[in-house]
Every structure is written in C-alpha cells, then in structure tokens.
Amino acid sequence: MKLRKIIGITALTLIVALGFEGCKSKEKVSAKSAVGQIIDDMPCTKEGRSDRKFFRASSMATSTDMQLSKEKALLLAKQRLVTLIQSTTKSVTDRYISERGFSDVSEVESKFENITREVADQTLSNIVVACEKSSVMDNGKYNSFIAIEVDRDDIKNGMDRRMSNDKKLQVDYDKKKFEEIFDQEMEKMREERGY
C-alpha cells in the first residue's frame, strides 16, 4: 500500500512538473532569447509595413559597436526599400506599357527601367526614419532595429517628371493613366500584405 502511494505521488509530481514546463515554453520571447527561438514582437516591424501612402522597410543588425549596428540596419533597410520601390514601379510600368500599346516595346521598357532605377535611388535622400530602437545583449553586442519610409507621391512625382522630360516618352505619356495604375498597384500591395 505504501509503495502505491509513493508511486502515485511520484507520478503526480512528474505530471505537474511536465505541465509547468509545457506552459513555460509558450511564454513570449524577446530579442535577448537564445538563438533559435521565435521572436514574437521584433521592434520596428509594424512601422516598416508599406501601405497605400508609403513605401516602408524595416531591418535589424548586430554589432559590438552601437553606431555600427545602427548604420548596418539603416543600410539593409534602404536596400529593402529600393528593391520594393523598383519591383512595384516595374509592375506599374509593365501594366502601363501593355495598356498603352507602345509600338517599340523593348525601347520603352528600357527607358522605364532606367527611370525607375534613377527615381528609386534618388528617393533615398527623402527617407524618413519611422522607428529606431537599440538594445544591448548579455554578450555585450548591440541590436539595432529601424523602419524607414518614403511617401509614395515622391516616387510617383519623380516618375512623372522623368517621363515628361523624355522626348520619346512624352509623345505617348498619359499621366492620368499612369497615376491610375500606380494607385491600383499600391492598393494591391497593401492588400497582399494584409494591412
């Protein structure tokens, strides 16, 4: 009888201990957590989501020097922002070219590609830092988080200026149609990202 009680108490203790261990694994983890665990709320990610009014990007970087971690995070965010702008404006120009029915499609595509690249690069001077946070880890390294944004009108107006100045494109350029497609692509991007 005593043996049954001891086995029962031991089994109950083991079950309770395993129950607590299972609950512990469901806690939110932070940026200071061990490698391999999921970070639920990484700083600046919400502020780095594009919508119909802004192109946005976020990033994080780690370094033993705080300033260097900030600079690396900013550089990565800028690269992501340029990539996002280029892919979105590429979709816009592809649709615009196909809907307008240009005669020399390859030449027009090439011109639009160059314009897109130039405008995306120029907008880096217009970025606004929407969020910036840093933390120090137990090992002495710094994590820097950043979110940047650029107004979509800066991109649209830059594209408009470049196309209006190009004599070849100027002949067939329909600003209203281009803006309509641009607005549709911005809305599509917002919907695809779920916000």
How many beta-strand elements?
3
What percent strand?
Answer: 5-15%
What is the overall pLDDT average?
A: 79
Number of helices in the DSSP assignment: 6
Rg (CA only): 26 Å
Helix content: 55-70%
Give me the strand/helix succession: HEHHEEHHH
Name the strands of the widest sheet in spatial order.
1-3-2
Give the termini separation. Answer: 63 Å
Given the C-alpha coordinates, what overall shape results?
A: elongated
> What is the number of independent domains?
1
Low-confidence stretches: 10-29
Q: What structural category do the secondary elements indicate?
A: alpha+beta
User: What's the story with the biggest beta sheet?
Assistant: 3 strands, antiparallel
Structure description:
This protein has 195 residues and is an alpha+beta fold. It contains six helices and three strands, in the order H-E-H-H-E-E-H-H-H. It has helices at 2-24, 66-100, 105-122, 152-165, 167-172, 175-193; strands spanning 54-63, 128-136, 142-151. The model is unreliable at 10-29 (pLDDT under 50).
Set out the fold topology:
Layout: H1 2-24, E1 54-63, H2 66-100, H3 105-122, E2 128-136, E3 142-151, H4 152-165, H5 167-172, H6 175-193
Antiparallel strand pairs: 1-3, 2-3
Helix pairs in contact: 2-3, 2-6, 3-4
